[in-house]
Amino acid sequence: MAEQSAAASEQRSQPVERGGVPTPPLRPGGYDPADYAAIVVRSAGEVGVSPLLVMTVLHNEAYKPHHPLLERLWQWWKPGASFGVANMHRAAFEQVRRTHGLSGRWQDLRDEPAFAVHVAALHLKDLDGSLPKRHVARYTRDELLALGYNAGERNMRAFARGVPPGPMARSYLRRFRDYRSQAAVALADSGRPRDAMTG
After folding, report:
1. What is Dmax (Cα atoms) for the chain?
2. DSSP classification of residue 18
């Protein structure tokens, strides 16, 4: 009986495939952004952004469980919570939805990881379009785009001019830099050539 219960628990913790796309596992700690590397490569290619940027953002946003049930519970407790494997807030989603004429809803981000990744790639592309070509040398373009993803477009533009980020944005940037090599490995393991992963 205990063996059956352990087996059932293990089965529930494994990612569930929906249309070939895994749903994040229910068990905390079982989520791996690398499961979405192929989706990242496809969405980044369609949108025209660096897959390494998108993959690193997914790693940075993996600090909480992303199973749809857990996200529903989290939203019940905190209505303004962010959704999906890319952890997007409603205001950012609505802006992307209007700009690109998306038919999906914000709530779909929690249930459809491929949609969440695609919307994140579109948002990063939009941020790239609003970022000045010249910026302070202490940040790479991808670092500024990641800061924009986290702190918003206005703050990103301020950081690009040299305004120092606050403690939360600095922490986000530090993690982004730390996850860069892990994201590159995830993309390489998905079959993408390493020389195509610069960003």
Report:
1. 64
2. E
Please enumerate in sequence order all residues whose Cβ is within 8 A of that of 179, keeping only pairs 6 or more positions apart, or say none. 56, 59, 60
Cβ 73 vs Cβ 29: under 8 Å:
no
Q: What is the mean pLDDT of residues 164-170?
A: 95
- Whether residue 19 is predicted with pLDDT greater than 70 in this model: the reply is no
What is this structure's pTM? 0.79
Query: Does residue 69 register a pLDDT over 50?
Result: yes
Bridge-partner residues for 21, per DSSP? 18
Whole-number mean pLDDT of the chain?
Answer: 82
Residue 190 has phi, psi (to 5 degrees) of: -80, 0
Kindly write down the DSSP assignment for every residue of 129-153, as one continuous string: HHS-S---TTS-HHHHHHHHHHH-H
Torsion sign (Cα): 26, 85, 169, 94:
negative
Q: Where are the alpha helices (DSSP H) in 14-89?
A: 37-47, 51-60, 68-77
Q: Quickly list DSSP for 54-67.
A: HHHHHHHTTTS---
Rounded CA gap, 25 and 178, in Å?
Answer: 24
